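Write out the 3D structure for:
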Amino acid sequence: MLVVRLAIDYGTSNTVAVLRWPDGRTQQLLFDASPLLPSAVQLGPGGQLLTGQDAVRGARSGPDRYEPTPKRRVGEAELLLGGVGVPVGDAIAATLRRVAEEAARAAGQRVTSVVLTHPAGWGPTRRRVLVEAAVHAGLPAPTLVPEPVAAAAYFTTLLGHQVPPGSQVVVYDLGAGTLDVSVVARGADGFEVRGIGGQDDFGGIDLDALLVERVAAVIERHDPAARRRLESPASPEERRAFRTLWDDARAAKEILSRQTSATLYAPFVDQEVLVGREEFERLAQPRLLATAQLTVDVMRTAGVAPAQLAGLFLVGGASRVPLVATTLHRVGGIAPVVLEQPEIVVAHGALVAPTGPSTMDDPAEPTAPPEPASPPPPGGPPSSPGSPSPGSPPVKRPASPRAALADSFTGTGDRGGAGRTPPAVRWVTVAAAALAMLVGFFGLPWIRTYTGQGHVDVGYLEVAAHAGTGLPSEPLDLWRYLYAHWLGLLLAAAAMAIAVVTIAAAGNGPGRPPRWTLLSSVVLVALAFLAFMAMPSPPAIGSAPGLGSLVSAGGYLLLALASPARSAKQDARAPRA
């Protein structure tokens, strides 16, 4: 029996597999005449798990029994499909079994060696789920290779890019539903991941959503009720229109990668919508700028300057959008390497990537930089049964708020690393906020007694309001007020600083909140300071530290829960019909 090796890139939306014979020949496996096998599963009427396009088609009649992205659910016990609990490992095994069957048919025998790729940030628990699913699917125990390592091996070994030992490359992997950015260093024995980052709520489907929203706006101008029908399809006709629009949006995005304009059809109002590449790029630019900045952050965290890189490699289907490479070049200062078929890079690279002796070794955790939170794509319609593309768009599943809050304190999670705010800093900032609140509220009698100026009960705004009215000693009262309550002012300033630092340090994982959240926190704390200055002295000393500390603590809790809240909102925008 020949030693035939099978490499599988089990992706969030699509799975890619390739065979390699002992003489070095390779064969791309095809599923329904496509190299992309949707990773989706659906529980069929007879209780069997449908995979690939069968699952996508079956979702039209049974959307409650459909899961488009089982990979996102790794770490959970089971999927709930039509009220039936299905272990996550079984769902993954169903897709891998489909791959194993096609590989055996193409090779004329069972494969004898398997290599399976995984995200660089996955820990041993998630990797074990992948290994057990492969064995359950009837495959030999697989060797695991991190996805960015496989990509780097493809570019260097198969494409011949020069990356000498000691050099580093960046792998920018923009798939249908997620973005992963990694810094990979080449050593004497192969590649090693030195830094990771990513956005779990951004991918090619979000670029499709920009075009869908463009068409939805045209529909709304002609018939607002028609847009509601599109966003919440109830009849088979409406679901077909919903699915067709998303298919057209994906196709238009690909056309705009080659041509200067594309036309989409607006259902229900019988209109054609012309979208130019310039307009599409204007809509997509803010999202892609955030990914480019994330890439720079990953490099900075790993201690790599753009001039020190041996290459910036683009993989993942959505990376073929021209604006992706243009934005990365402009922001990062290095020209990316772009391929015609970036979807197949990881699977092919896994065949030539150096592998260790064990599939379950627990390598050192790479560092992860701050991940900028990106807003959901505007106007994406709410969830509806089905899937708009062969890969099935990702559906975000929110983690429990308790788990999110615990994760933000302990610093644990998939990505981990130096990019997260250290747990000690979080505990110290929260404790300091609590202390300021206690002192502000309960230290008032001592402060007033200590200063001996408790009788001064006029605020600064009162002084300003009475300026020029002939009331005596306004400036004197103001300065006496400031002097008498210097400790209260100090506490107020400390509260403001604590609020800003706490909110800036908080968040579920990335350690950097959305801009609007930080801005709103500053505004709220400024209002707290105004309350300190405007109110009479008895409540004033406690008001600013108290309000400032409450704002900081509330902001921390809000941000700790913000990540699953954003995921739930994104869930409502992911097309499923």
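The longest helix spans residues 277-302.
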